[in-house]
Specification:
Rossmann fold; alpha/beta; six-stranded mixed sheet; 7 helices
């Protein structure tokens, strides 16, 4: 069936560091990051500003190259963007002159998928993301949440092995954000995709993830890797349970501790 792929999508980040030049000096954004995401996992990466979350996702997407270390997907090196990874950025970046249907189909056109298969896949992902009735609409006619649904469908229609989410709900209001959280978790369960998501929202990470990885700051590195021990079938009501609240508080304390340690180093003139 369209939307369900064989079990694949093992992502392996080994010893990855990333340097940038800033005002004539080298700045290390990430240092020695090790992260393995198994097929079908939903891993959320959280951390304070400056922890390198989005840099890590850009490296996995192949948009940037590590200064040190390796990134592989199913044992093959990641050396640039590819259809095996679907990226949903914070802003959906839809083509304003294309309808919803044609935005979703864009990647399939680039891959020269035949018209019949293209139509089958587009229909399935429009239905999966609740967009079937909006297929002829233009982006300017959509709400923010609807635009992100299109971006998600567009990333998934090429059936990548890994879905990469870069704070895709950060600009949405609270109600729409929670609706999108429920949607993306349902899509993940329906498709069996491997998902790596960056978010600044610890509550969102605990609700969505099977694991939550916390990055320390300056440079970014893995401070903790926590399994989310909550029911696989969860709805928004889980956010009110003692188990959820305790895990959220523990992770928020950890992120805050990393942020405070970073500020202390800056104040002491370590940078």
């Amino acid at each position: 069936m369209v939307g369900v792929t064989p079990l694949a999508g093992t992502l392996d980040v080994r010893g990855v560091s990333k340097d940038f030049q800033e005002r004539g000096r080298k700045v290390r954004a990430l240092e020695g990051v090790d992260l393995r995401v198994e097929p079908g996992e939903f891993v959320c990466v959280v951390g304070a500003s400056g922890s390198g979350k989005s840099t890590l996702l850009a490296l996995v997407a192949g948009l940037q190259t590590p200064t040190e270390g390796t990134i592989t997907l199913d044992d093959l090196p990641v050396d640039g963007p590819g259809p095996d990874r679907g990226l949903v950025p914070q802003a959906g970046t839809l083509y304003p002159w294309r309808t919803v249907e044609r935005n979703v189909a864009f990647g399939l056109e680039l891959l020269k998928v035949d018209a019949a298969e293209r139509a089958r896949r587009v229909d399935w992902y429009l239905a999966e993301t609740g967009l079937s009735d909006l297929r002829t609409a233009l982006p300017r006619q959509l709400s923010g949440g609807q635009q992100q649904r299109v971006a998600i469908a567009r990333a998934l229609v090429c059936e990548p092995e890994v879905l990469l989410l870069d704070e895709p709900f950060g600009a949405l209001d609270v109600q729409t954000k929670e609706d999108m959280q429920v949607l993306i978790r349902q899509v993940w369960q329906d498709t069996g995709k491997t998902v790596l998501m960056v978010t600044h929202d610890v509550e969102e990470a605990v609700f969505l993830g099977t694991r939550v990885v916390v990055l320390a700051c300056d440079p970014g590195r893995v401070a903790a890797d926590v399994t989310v021990d909550l029911p696989a079938d969860r709805d928004l009501s889980v956010k009110r349970t003692p188990e959820f609240l305790a895990m959220r508080a523990s992770l928020e304390d950890l992120v805050r501790a990393q942020h405070n340690a970073h500020n202390a180093r800056v104040t002491a003139g370590d940078r």
